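Support request from a user on the community tier.

User writes: "When I paste my structure tokens into the form, the page sometimes reloads and wipes my input. The last time it worked, I copied everything first. Here is what I submitted, just in case something in the input itself triggers the reload:"
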């Protein structure tokens, strides 16, 4: 590589790093502004209820379907791997811990980032490019009060509830596989999972993380919606960025929160 090409490559890389930190700072300011506006949430309670329905109730089918087959494949693969050692009865317990602590919360959040986060970005982005947000400001209506705060708190409240149901449904999906494919009894599967493996802290840790995941989905989705430009093409690009950023942020946050929880509550 010629010296000029190397210099250009380094400059291009540094520009990307600079843009990354600029966007990260802008997101932090956006999040802080959203939290500061949360005191007016009561005045937008009807919007809060509407967003709880949109984010929570309408997301149940896809969340439960994903969790069901995740639980089924976890028990199936774990049971097959443990069968040569005569330990397939532990498949339910291992899968239940994985569902409760990590896979259930993280996978549910990523699925909702694709459905809910993309919807937030597309809706707000369309309002931005059609100047509806500017019209709200002209009418002395704060767009944060109207568009961001209800979505933020609805996501933080509904995602843990959806996750609780998803973990339960995934556990039942694993039960079906344990009985039909691994030839275990339902009683043995349930007792080995709940009595020997799963502890309350596993459940609390997994569900507790989803409060942060809900905040990530809402803040990222709204941020990219508010910063959409370029008409219909810009809405599409913003939606793609929203889903990718939210999914990666959830995985990164999941690791650090899991590490923190394990240090406080060792297995």
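"...and here is what came back when it finally went through:"
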């Amino acid at each position: 590589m010629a010296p000029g090409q190397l210099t250009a490559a380094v400059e291009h890389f540094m520009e990307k790093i600079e843009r990354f930190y600029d966007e990260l700072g802008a997101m932090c300011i956006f999040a802080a502004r959203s939290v500061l506006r949360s005191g007016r949430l009561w005045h937008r309670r009807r919007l809060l209820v509407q967003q709880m329905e949109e984010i929570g109730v309408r997301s149940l089918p896809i969340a439960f379907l994903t969790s069901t087959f995740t639980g089924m494949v976890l028990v199936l693969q774990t049971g097959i791997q443990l069968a040569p050692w005569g330990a397939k009865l532990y498949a339910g317990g291992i899968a239940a811990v994985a569902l409760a602590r990590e896979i259930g919360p993280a996978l549910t959040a990523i699925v909702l980032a694709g459905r809910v986060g993309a919807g937030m970005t597309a809706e707000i982005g369309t309002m931005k490019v059609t100047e509806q947000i500017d019209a709200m400001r002209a009418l002395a209506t704060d767009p944060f009060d109207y568009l961001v705060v209800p979505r933020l708190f609805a996501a933080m409240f509904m995602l843990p509830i959806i996750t609780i149901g998803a973990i339960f449904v995934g556990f039942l999906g694993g039960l079906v596989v344990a009985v039909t494919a691994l030839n275990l009894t339902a009683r043995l599967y349930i007792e080995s999972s709940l009595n020997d493996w799963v502890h309350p802290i596993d459940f609390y840790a997994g569900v507790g993380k989803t409060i942060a995941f809900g905040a990530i989905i809402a803040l990222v989705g709204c941020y990219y919606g508010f910063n959409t430009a370029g008409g219909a093409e810009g809405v599409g690009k913003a939606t793609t960025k929203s889903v990718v950023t939210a999914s990666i942020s959830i995985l990164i946050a999941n690791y650090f929160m899991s590490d923190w929880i394990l240090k406080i509550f060792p297995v």
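Agent notes: The reload is a front-end session timeout and is unrelated to the input. The two ends are 51 Å apart (CA to CA). The chain is about 85% helix and 0% strand. Escalated to web team.
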